[in-house]
Amino acid sequence: MEHANKHSDIPSDLEDHPLMQEVADFEDFEEEGPEPVSDNDSPDLRSELELLRVRNEQLMRIAADFENYKRRQEREREELSKFAGQQLITGLLPVLDNFERALQTEPNPEDVSNFTEGIRMIHRQFLDVLTKTGVSPIEAMGQPFNPEFHEAIMSEANDEVPDETVIGEFQRGYVMHGRLLRPAVVKVSKA
After folding, report:
1. Predicted model pTM
2. Which CATH architecture has domain 137-191?
């Protein structure tokens, strides 16, 4: 189809649209130049020309609407990307506030247990925020080694558990809605 090059900006799913052939025919007509319409031309010819003109306008509107749609989708995608973490950050701000309050208090060497309990409470609050956003820890200890979720950096002989069982965790791994964020860094048993 020689008109495909003229309309390289038109999406491929619209190329086979029936109006495309009519536009191509109309463009051929425009390139060749219309024959002057005279009074003795048939009304059928006039109505065909009018129909082609109307169809061309319709297709141009469809193409313009599609371009506007693409631009709007791109803007929305950029907005979504820009603010994707907003909910998580909003949830973490109270955790940050509590850390700042804890740092502003003067540590009392005789009352370390209250300070430690406060840190534990902040830790629980932090984990709650992660849970609400779909983040959960990977339970690794005692589990069979799974390279999809575990990264083994050590192995140790151990007759008490089956071979390739996680017997130590150096860094906790996390998943978000089932997708791996970070593998658990582990030590595994070997026979």
Report:
1. 0.57
2. Roll (2.30)
